[in-house]
Amino acid sequence: MKTLKSIIFVLVVLFFVSCSSTAKFPTSKVTPAAEITAKKKQDSNKNYVIYVTAENLASADRLTPPKNNYSVWIVTDNDGTKNIGQLIVKNAKKATLTATTPFKVKEIFITAEDQGNNSYPSGVEISRTTFNK
Question: Global pTM?
Answer without folding.
Answer: 0.83
